[in-house]
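Hi support team,

I submitted a single chain yesterday and got back a structure, but I'm not sure I'm reading the token output correctly. Could someone confirm the output below corresponds to the sequence I sent? I've pasted both exactly as they appear in my results page.

Thanks,
R.
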Amino acid sequence: MDANWENHEFFQQFVAHFLGRGIGLTPSGDDMLMGKIMMSNSFSMPMEWSSFILTQLERTQTTKVSDAYYKALLSGYISTQFVSLLQIIKDKKMTDWNEAISRIADYGHTSGWDTLFGVFLFLQKLEKSLS
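Hi R., thanks for writing in. Yes, this is the structure output for that exact sequence:
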């Protein structure tokens, strides 16, 4: 199955597979999904994920911390480190990119990198759709 984010079946299987997957306060699967969701929300791209993710959270076990992060993210809240990163992307100030990435990478044991992977997945898909 192609990694087509707009394909509802693919999206549901993807979320169901990664939600709650991993260890720690925020499992890696959750962090990656949150990076993807954050970018989709930030770029105002149509996303019908919110209701499905909330439904999945009722069915799938994840940590209380991840659950709270999902609910905050789906309500439009993101951390200041990611606000800074998004501003750098918007303003195309790539000279500030390394510092922003380093600050995010320091977040949690692997959470920063896992969330950045979700950001990368979104940007990679965006680049392909624009070419």
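A quick pointer for reading it: The chain has a mean pLDDT of 86. Let us know if anything else looks off.

Best,
Support desk
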